[in-house]
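Consider the tokenized backbone below.
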């Protein structure tokens, strides 16, 4: 069985107080995008290990793969058959695109379907929370207002998604190949400056993508740009090239930009291609 775990981007990221578990409350809006990995799972009872996983694409090995954790969580409760897994990675690591969380959540989904476990959405949410907070979003996998530690999904739609007339844009992702940001590193640096959130996000302050620039902020950008100034340079360059809105996504090193549908971005893509991961897709709001 094959599935295609997709990435996500963040519209805004508000960092709240740190809890006793050393994790921060957050508020953001997660948007699923088309960029995806390829995950194949085959029942294979003639192997010694319960799960054997191989890789291709932009990596050849993942330490502590969350897909393996997802399998063992299900296996511990249902003693499912042995499986052979192949993961073709297209979503870069340390980018803030949720690739690892998406892979693991889609692993849960594919095991549920393959072995007819009949897990409810509530059951799936419980398993996903044990893997990682971002995984909860990928159970729903719809544009979502995300709260708590990233595990609380508010299904109320924003004004911008309630419009009858959907407008088309282009979404460009740019990530330096040599910068993979650790979430722990960024939050450690964020705590040291003891910075309060730049601006409390009222997600219904705007109903147009052209309002984003003055209303949507990622609280981790300032500390990330100090640690990795190249990210700030990328963002400034994208605005120079007429981006409507540009931001770092999540706590990672990927900068995304939304452009008008009709603009030719080939010069930008060629400018970044050699030393950066670059992805372009159609995008509607």
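A designed sequence for it:
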């Amino acid at each position: 069985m094959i599935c295609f775990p997709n990435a996500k981007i963040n519209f805004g990221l508000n960092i709240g107080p740190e809890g006793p578990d050393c994790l921060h409350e957050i508020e953001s809006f997660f948007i699923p995008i088309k960029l995806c990995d390829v995950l194949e799972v085959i029942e294979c009872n003639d192997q010694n290990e319960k799960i054997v996983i191989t890789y291709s694409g932009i990596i050849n090995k993942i330490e502590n793969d969350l897909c393996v954790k997802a399998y063992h969580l299900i296996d511990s409760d249902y003693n499912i058959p042995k499986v052979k897994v192949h993961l073709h990675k297209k979503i870069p690591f340390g980018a803030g695109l949720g690739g690892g969380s998406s892979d693991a959540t889609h692993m849960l989904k594919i095991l549920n379907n393959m072995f007819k476990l009949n897990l409810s959405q509530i059951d799936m949410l419980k398993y996903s929370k044990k893997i990682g907070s971002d995984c909860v979003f990928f159970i729903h996998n719809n544009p979502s207002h995300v709260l708590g530690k990233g595990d609380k999904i508010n299904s109320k739609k924003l004004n911008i998604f309630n419009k009858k007339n959907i407008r088309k844009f282009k979404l460009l992702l740019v990530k330096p190949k040599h910068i993979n940001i650790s979430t722990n590193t960024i939050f450690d640096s964020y705590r040291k400056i003891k910075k309060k959130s730049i601006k409390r996000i009222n997600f219904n302050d705007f109903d147009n993508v052209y309002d984003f620039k003055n209303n949507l902020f990622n609280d981790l950008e300032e500390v990330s740009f100090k640690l990795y100034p190249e990210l700030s340079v990328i963002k400034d360059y994208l605005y120079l090239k007429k981006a409507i809105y540009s931001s770092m996504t999540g706590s990672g090193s990927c900068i995304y930009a939304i452009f008008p549908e009709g603009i030719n971005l080939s010069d930008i893509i060629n400018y970044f291609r050699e030393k950066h991961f670059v992805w372009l897709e159609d995008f509607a709001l």
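Residues 56 and 88 are 5 Å apart (CA to CA).
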